[in-house]
Amino acid sequence: MADWLSVPAPAKLNLMLHILGRRDDGYHELQTLFQFLDYGDELQFRQRDDNEITLTPAIDGVDFEDNLIIRAARALQALSEKPCGADIRLHKVLPMGGGLGGGSSDAATTLLTLNKLWQLHLSLEQLADIGLRLGADVPVFVHGQAAFAEGVGEILTPTPELDEPWYLVVVPQVHVNTGKIFSNKCLTRNTAAISIRTALRREGNNDCQAVVSMLHPEIGKALNLLNNFSPAKLTGTGACIFSSFSSELEAIKVSKQLPAEYSTFVAKGINHSPTHKVLFGPS
Ligand SMILES: C[C@](O)(CO)[C@H](O)COP(=O)(O)OP(=O)(O)OC[C@H]1O[C@@H](n2ccc(N)nc2=O)[C@H](O)[C@@H]1O
Ligand SMILES: Nc1ncnc2c1ncn2[C@@H]1O[C@H](COP(=O)(O)OP(=O)(O)OP(=O)(O)O)[C@@H](O)[C@H]1O
Predict the structure, then answer these.
(1) Is the pLDDT of residue 77 over 80?
(2) What residue spans define the domains of the chain?
(3) Is 50 a catalytic site residue?
(4) What is the pLDDT of residue 2?
(5) Does domain 1-283 have CATH number 3.30.230.10?
C-alpha cells in the first residue's frame, strides 16, 4: 500500500478588492491583491491503482460529488488514459464561506498533488485553467505566488515584493454567500482601475464591505470593533475580517482585548504557498 502524502491548503486574504464592472455573463471584472497565510486546511493523499476516489471525512452539507476536492480529482481523471485513483483525507480548519478561499485552496492542492502522483505532467498554466472552472480563486492557489489579480481574478501578476506582516483574523459566525453579494443591486461596480504600485501601498479598499455589512450587521459590528485597534478590512465577500500588525505578539495582544465571543486566529502573511514548498521543494 502506498504511503500517505500530507499537503497543506493555505488560506488567502484579499488585501483589497475593487469591482470595476460586470461582464455579460454576470461575472465581475475586479482587481484584488492576494496574499497567503501560514494557516489552513491539511490534505493527505494515498495513490490507488484502481479508479476509486475516496474522501474522509465528508463535509456537512456538501454532497460528495460537489466537494471541490472531488471535482478537482474528477477533472484530472478525465484527462488520464490509465486507471488512477486516490484515498484522500481532509483536515478542515478554514471556515466555509469565510472569504479565506478554503474550498478553492483544497481544490488547488488536489490538482497539484494528483498531477504529481498520477504523473500527468500538466503545466501550472493547464492546472490553473482547469481550476478556474471550479472557482475564480483556484488559479492563484495553483500558481502559489502572492499576486495582483485582474479580469475575474484569473489574470495574475506575482507580487513577491509585498511585505509579510502578521494578521489578526476575526471569524464572525456567519456564512456569506458570494453569489448573493455579487448580485446585490447596492454593490458599487464602477471603481476606477488602479496600478499595482498603488495596490502594493495597501491603499485599496474592499468594495463588498458596505453590502456585506448591510446584509450581515454582525460583520459590520466586528469591523467597527477591530477598527478601534487597527484599520480592519473584509477579505473577499467575507465573513472574515483582518488587521495587520508588525509582530505576532502585537496581534495576539489585540485578540485578547476583543470580546470573548469572537472567534479569532493569528497568522503570518506569506508570498509563497506552502503547498508548493511541500510538492516542489523550497524555491
Ligand atoms: C470574491 C473572491 O473571493 C475574491 O477572491 C472571489 O472572486 C470569489 O471566488 P469564489 O468563491 O471561488 O467564487 P466562484 O465560485 O468563482 O463564484 C461564486 C459566484 O460569485 C460571483 N462572482 C465571482 C467572481 C467574480 N469575479 N465575479 C462574480 O460575479 C458569481 O455570481 C459566481 O457565481
Ligand atoms: N472542500 C471544500 N471546502 C469548503 N467548501 C467547499 C468545499 N467543496 C465545496 N465547497 C462549497 O464551497 C462553498 C464556499 O466555500 P469556501 O470555503 O471556499 O468559501 P470562501 O472562503 O468564502 O471562499 P472565497 O473566498 O473563495 O469566496 C462552501 O459553502 C461549500 O458549499
Answers:
(1) yes
(2) 1-283
(3) no
(4) 78
(5) yes
